[in-house]
Amino acid sequence: MKTNHENNLVSWDDHLDKKYGEIGTSSRTKYEEGFENFKIGILIQEARKQQNLTQEELAQKCGTTKNYISRIENNASDIRLSTLMRIIREGLGGQLKLSVEL
Fold it and tell me: pTM to 2 decimals?
């Protein structure tokens, strides 16, 4: 583990290695998947707020419920790709772009 001995700083990657295991381990993969879900929720929440929409208004625009939008924003729900696309396209007027890293 690399540290800065003057102030005991540890790199973020080293912190993750220590807490969740190295890249490729099941615990690290589980953490990384959960973090991606968390980021999606935050992105939706920020886009909604930028457009001055309530969760209820966003839900009505894309044909879902306020409770479902809240669960997505608070990382308490898995989200189907088709639903995510509908929220972004119909609810927020945006476009979803995905990438795959191998």
Answer: 0.76
